[in-house]
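ok here's the first one, seq then struct tokens
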Amino acid sequence: MFHFFRGRHRLHHEHHHHQRGGGGRGPKMFDSGAMRYVVLQLIADKPRHGYEIIKELEALSGGSYSPSPGAIYPLLSMLADMGHVDIVKDGNKKLYSVLPEGLAFLEENRAMVDAYMARLSCSGGEEGGDLRSLMHALKEAVISRGRGPRSTREHVDAIRAILKHATNEINKLN
């Protein structure tokens, strides 16, 4: 009986750990409510495919922010459901364009839209990037070089040495 409970607890713990330790695409810059304004503004600027929106957000942030498709595509569906964007089939893709209701929404919320757009374009503007973005970039580099298909024992040893050195240097700061 106790073995059953121990096993169940262990599985539950491992599942929980996996959820917390899963990889992400970058730091969260906006909640979905704020992102609605930004994405709608990008579509108002010119009709776009979902992938183009992701790439434009990454470009506007200087590479410090890249939303996942799992964040963008449901948002695009929501904007269509709200009557703010139109969706037209373009081959295998969907092209999103703003509707008059979407333009009216943007104008009613112009101050907020402009503030979110400014936040996006300033996010990559700090010299060298902010600490959170840099830590995320480091994590991505370690994972891709340390676990990738071309990863060798030498790569992993070199990464360990670099991380230990960086940790020691940071700990020396007063």
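and now the second one, same deal
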Amino acid sequence: MMSNATSPQQIAASLTEHWSPRVVAEVDDSYVKVAKVKGSLAWHSHEHEDELFLVLKGHLRIEMEDGVVELGEGEMFVVPKGVRHNPVAEQECHLMLIERKSTLHTGDVVSEKTRSLAEQLRPL
């Protein structure tokens, strides 16, 4: 099976919408996604899924009820399942996310920024 290498950085940089993750790969029962973010998403949690954030470019703050994690370029953090969190980017930030296929974009909360899985799976 032949395949092509992909560049999460290039794909994230090409996105035109903020807070609209796009699936770039599948690993077993998880999706690898990239997103371009700016501002605040929403306080939410994922009851049954961990969520990995990797900063490709810029800076991300993940607010949680028991503290804050600051991520710079090349740094990653896993938000454990069930932990309420709110990702915030003061300036535009490019992310790679790894999460189970069952993970809802904004978890237990729906806002105008929430994206369906169908939207996240649209061709790039």
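notes on #2: The longest helix spans residues 8-14. The radius of gyration is 14 Å.
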